[in-house]
Specification:
The chain is built from 19 helices and six strands. The chain is of the alpha+beta class.
Length: 460
């Protein structure tokens, strides 16, 4: 007898509850949510979906039903696809031709679709770097030793080869050949290309090739492959069937090669550099207020999907500066404070169901950094806890930013366990300022929520 899967109930009933297979355009997932695009939203029974085991909440984004699962969403997605014989699209999304999107949202959707699948690898690499730092500081391994060398290059690998991953997932996201996308990303990292740039000017077809370092970059591959995919589709459409397997990849690469090396690659490098410089200029100009405002507004950015616009900056900042002092700090403090607000509600409410829900949500948010259950299930519906968490986050982030606390790696999770270790590389003072900001945020959020949340008043 087969072992019962945690997501069997979801897999067995989800198709029926969204109006049947004929109402489903496609199924995909991100880091915490199962995403189902439907033709007719009126056929979806969200109330019954919310009652399914493993479902932490439900929300709509246009015609897309987002079922909040948490960090095990990939397991839920796999089970749903298997049981219902659905097309496995992974974390890529293939919008219907009839689906109309706001251009800004569409761009953010592409950025999220090509970056989100890479994040687990970046987290692993970041924590390898933390492991090297801690073991070296503790005297367990020495610099220059074999194990130090191996752990260091393994930790750097996901970042250095980022253009390859971005190229592949951008192609997949846009419906192109994933291998071709990876090749375009890999062109920027080939040893002969790097050494050629170092030895002297390079050119192709008489066009000068811009001298830049593309390791750990995002925008060059993203822009180049975004242009490569329509070229690839055009060639595929106009190639004779008997020659398509040869002409499609060869002509595509022949056309995109000079464009990538001479135009989109350099443009992406400049874009990434100036975005990071602009945000750091803003940070240095308005100081701690910038971090405080981002922390205060972070729940609303996540709710609208606008936080995806900041991901390229975050990764580019690590690549170019080696640290990031705004978004990671704001995000971690904000997520933990959502948990603190839920904890205050859990201790104050007399409603047993709400008490249980809020207490569970406080743990997932504070420890693991998963805020969707708490946000959609507690703070957002009740409003007052949300406002208190935003106020607490503003003050907590202000303290951390006054001390110029900076993250030195991508957080494994944006809670206490995964968030604080990424500040160790900046020294003990850097870590203590972040801890101070986190504690101030927790205490203020909890106290404000406990005082101002009134259960006997219907909140609007």
């Amino acid at each position: 007898m087969s072992k019962k899967n945690k997501y069997d109930e979801l897999a067995n009933f989800i198709v029926q509850l969204v109006g049947g297979k004929e109402n489903i355009q496609y199924v995909t997932h991100c880091v915490t949510r199962l995403r189902i695009n439907v033709n007719d939203t009126t056929k979806v029974d969200t109330k019954k979906i919310e009652e399914i085991e493993g479902c932490l909440g439900v929300q709509w984004s246009g015609n897309q039903l987002q079922i909040i699962i948490g960090q095990a969403v990939a397991d839920a997605y796999k089970r749903v696809v298997e049981v219902n014989n659905l097309q496995d699209t992974g974390s890529s999304q293939k919008p219907s031709n009839n689906e109309k999107k706001n251009p800004v949202i569409a761009i953010l959707d592409i950025v999220a679709g090509c970056i989100t699948p890479v994040i687990p690898g970046l987290i692993a690499g970041g924590f390898f770097q933390i492991l090297v730092l801690l073991t070296t500081m503790a005297g367990l391994i020495s610099e220059g030793s074999s194990i130090h060398t191996v752990l260091t290059f393994v930790g750097n690998t996901p970042f250095y080869f980022l253009p390859v991953f971005i190229g592949g997932y951008t192609a997949k996201k846009l419906g192109g050949n994933q291998t071709m996308g990876m090749i375009v990303g890999a062109m920027f990292l080939h040893p002969d290309f790097i050494s050629g740039l170092a030895e002297g000017p390079l050119s192709i077809f008489g066009l000068p090739i811009y001298n830049a370092s593309y390791g750990s970059s995002i925008f060059p591959a993203l822009l180049s492959v975004s242009l490569m995919v329509p070229i690839e589709k055009f060639i595929a459409k106009h190639s004779p069937d008997s020659l398509r397997s040869i002409l499609e990849p060869f002509i595509t690469l022949l056309i995109i090669m000079p464009i990538a090396l001479c135009v989109t690659g350099p443009l992406g490098d400049v874009l990434g550099t100036y975005i990071s410089s602009a945000i750091m200029w803003l940070y240095n100009t308005i100081g701690f207020l910038g971090v405080a405002v981002v922390a205060c507004l972070w729940p609303l950015l996540v709710m609208t999907g606008m936080h995806h616009a900041l991901v390229p900056y975050i990764l580019n900042s690590f690549a170019t500066l080696g640290f990031e002092g705004i978004c990671e700090t704001a995000m971690i403090i904000s997520n933990i404070d959502q948990g603190a607000a839920c904890l205050a509600v859990a201790l104050k409410t007399k409603d047993k169901t709400l008490k249980s829900t809020a207490f569970g949500c406080s743990i997932t948010a504070m420890v693991g950094g998963v805020t969707e259950p708490g946000f959609y299930g507690v703070t957002f519906p009740l409003k007052t806890p949300l406002y208190c968490a935003m106020a607490g986050s503003f003050m907590g982030a202000s303290i951390a930013a006054i001390g110029k606390a900076c993250a030195y790696s991508v957080a494994g999770s944006t809670g206490l366990l995964g968030g604080l270790p990424i500040y160790i590389a900046g020294g003990m003072s850097n870590l203590l300022w972040m801890v101070a900001g986190v504690l101030i945020g927790i205490i203020l959020t909890f106290v404000l929520t406990y005082i101002f949340y009134k259960e006997d008043v219907k909140e609007i």
